[in-house]
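Subgroup meeting minutes
Present: P.N., E.W., G.H.
Scribe: E.W.

1. P.N. recapped why we're keeping a running log of single-chain structure predictions: easier to compare across weeks, and new members can see raw inputs and outputs side by side.
2. G.H. added today's entry (156 aa).
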Amino acid sequence: MMAATDQPSGGDLAGRVRRRRGVLGLTREEVAARARMDTGYLAHVEHAPVALTTDALIRLADALDTTISGLLGADSTRPHDHRRTALHLIVDEMREQESLHPIKSGGIGRIAFASARRLTVVPVNFTVHHGDIVFRTAATSAIGQYDAGKVEGVRS
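Output recorded in log:
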């Protein structure tokens, strides 16, 4: 098991931003100016887990001469059109065990579904029981009112 001190502070995104800035030989001030960000905020991005807006990700990727996918950890190449960063996703099928590993201890997740011609996303507390993701909801909740057919439940 990895100790908390063995992992770079700020998580994967922070590490990628720090590494990319180092590869380019840029100061934090230079990257912040390129990305139209406050230098203090960029320091926060490099050392703390953050959820950047799409606009901030685009500006940061452009400032670091990479793609959003590159910042988020997907393998990609810089698009030929350097005027705007493009999102280049590489889709690779995961094995069931790979997909369950990050969530096996349960926690807080999100359920997304189409409702009234729009996407609805709601947070849920969940657990994994014999490979099934299990959560509880009320019949009057947004999820409870969504009729997706038969749903199997697990009681503890």
